[in-house]
Amino acid sequence: MLSALRNPRQAASQIITFGLILSTAFMMWKGLSVIADSPSPIVVVLSGSMEPAFQRGDLLFLWNRNFFEETKVGEIVVYNVKGKDIPIVHRVVRKFGTGSEAQLLTKGDNNVADDTELYARGQDYLERQDIIGSVVGYIPFVGYVTIMLSEHPWLKTVALGIMGLTAILQRE
Amino acid sequence: MASSQEKIAVYSLSDLKHTSDDAIPTYLNSISFTQSHFLADVRLGLSYLAFAICAACFLWDYKLGFEDTKYYTAIAVALYAIINSSLSIWIWVVERGIVYVGTNKAGDWISIQSATKKHVPIYNLTITVTEAGKGGSSRETKLSRPFREWFDETGAFVALPFQQMFASNVDIVGKADPKRVVVEKKKGAAAKLDTSKTMDEKLLNLLAESYVDVAAEDAGTSSATPAKGTKRRGKKA
User: What residues form the membrane-spanning segments (chain B) (predicted)?
Assistant: First the structure.
């Protein structure tokens, strides 16, 4: 480490090794976003409102392109409500009209009522543009790590710090 | 820094290799070789370019959102993939473990490639020399030496035997630093024999040697430490 400070090329190379790990992860995420046409192609289920289909901590894969058919009743979609930045995973239960103007109503399988309560003030239905993707696959439980990280934010700092230190101190 | 004061863990192969790799430019630059940083500079350039593209992509995504920028993001992802693959090709095909490229005052060109095999404490060097005015023909010297020749048991780097290895085996280094050339006919023959043997035979030889050394030291016949290196090599013959 000390000798690295005396050799600028070696120091630059060790820093960028860490930088490339981060940037490759980010670009892979962005690549997936572009392919699925969704700002967030992988989400973690945060609530039990879709039980028994999905539990808290399940990892969902989203697809946001309508190549063959429109989003239809029965599909499980992830949508963002205006003004709230937490994506919600619920099932489409009603659809009126077609195309991008179609009016969609969603409901959690495990909820008693439909989602009109959850939508923004004055909003009675969703449009296609509110949806960030339909669920096409899932892995149970592995997303629990991110729930841990968001409920205990200091874990993030610790994990990032350890990663950074090992990448800089190690020369493998 | 040849890190002659810094001690390393002698059982860590990567520490052994990196310390030795770092000692090569220190030595050759000190005997009037001029190091060329072209390989490292291209590698760093590609790395930082890729990182800059990623940083820009992150910024516009953060400021403007996904929908408005997704075509630029797609282009950035494609560019990043291309640059990163060229970087891998550069490291695996062009650099191939080259730790030193340099020229001396006469214009002779030297390139040194180092490698180790997993869990085998032997330093494998491929030294390519292209002498000026010989029509670009180059000679390749391969050396395989155990790290213990230039690390003592506490993990300190001992520069002299390391530098003697280069001075004795590479003639343009020898010419630049005649003081460190060890002339020993038998040794040269033994070194040549060594390269024709398989790895297992070499290891057996090394083991046998170390036993002989211990036996000799126990018998009280070993001389002072500085002579140790040459003594060991003498036995190999």
Answer: 42-60, 72-93
